Amino acid sequence: MIIQRIYIDTSIIGGYFDDEFKEATIKLFERLENNEVIFVVSDLLDLELLNAPQYVRKLLINYSANRFERIELTEEAILLANTYIKEKVVGKTSIEDCRHIAMATINKVDVLASWNFKHFVNLDRIKGYNSVNLRFGYAILEIRSPKDLVKYGDD
């Protein structure tokens, strides 16, 4: 069985505790527990969680460290993120979001999971990110909400 590599952003961690997003997020974490997926997490996620409530910061500690692949923000990712801004995929205030997209792209994850519908899980934005990716020699990045990444029923 191929284990899917899913890059998670900060909204996934918060979604675990949010009434609107809890059900699908918990199901995604169940896939992690069942060794069906591995979460790709970045140092940027760690930084963003510093200001979160303690119970949110502690969520990932409940899982074995080998269920995560850790990646770091590199100069290449910074340059690619800046290109998304320069190409007007999103505005300058979304640079941190662009860095998540760039790290996921460069590290060739299978999919980026997010509840951020304004800057990530948005067809126009996805097309914009992937247009830049293709023009600069990177692969297309799948971007989905956890609802698209969990199994429903027995089929």
Task: Give your account of this protein's structure.
With 155 residues, the chain is of the alpha/beta class. It has a single domain, classed as 5'-nuclease (Rossmann fold, 3-Layer(aba) Sandwich), CATH 3.40.50.1010. It has helices spanning 10-15, 22-33, 43-49, 54-57, 75-86, 95-106, 123-135; strands spanning 4-8, 37-42, 68-71, 111-113, 143-144. It has a 5-stranded parallel β-sheet with strand order 3-2-1-4-5, sandwiched between helices.
The count of DSSP E runs of length 2 or more, i.e. the number of strands, is 5
| Rg, Å, rounded | 15 Å
Query: How much strand content do the residues show?
Result: 5-15%
CATH architecture label name: 3-Layer(aba) Sandwich
Quaternary status: single chain
The 3D shape can be described as: globular
Layout: helices, strands, pairs:
Layout: E1 4-8, H1 10-15, H2 22-33, E2 37-42, H3 43-49, H4 54-57, E3 68-71, H5 75-86, H6 95-106, E4 111-113, H7 123-135, E5 143-144
Parallel strand pairs: 1-2, 1-4, 2-3, 4-5
Outline of this structure?
Helix content is 43%, strand content 13%.
Jot down its keywords.
13% strand; alpha/beta; 43% helix; 155 residues; Rossmann fold; 5-stranded parallel beta sheet
